[in-house]
Amino acid sequence: MRLSVRPQKNVNVQILRAVAAALVVLDHVILSLHEPELTQFAYQAGNIGVWIFFVISGFVMHHSERSHFGAATNAAAFAWKRFSRIAPMYWIITLVVIAQVAASTAAGHEIPAHAVLTFSHILKSLLFIPYVDAVAPPHPILAPGWTLEYEMIFYFVFGLSMILPIRRGLLFVLVVISTLFLIGTFLNPLWVAADHKSISSFMTDCVVLLFIASIGLSAIWHATEAALPSWFLCVAAAIVSAVIAAFYVLKLQYPITPLCQMLFFIPCIAVVAICAYARPLSGPIAQIAIFLGDASYATYLSNVLVIAGVVKYLPRLVQELSLPASLFLVVVAALAAGAITHVLIERPLLRKMRQLGQVRRNHGSMQKSARA
Question: If we measure between CA atoms, which residue out of 274, 263, 160 comes closest to residue 217?
Answer without folding.
Answer: 274
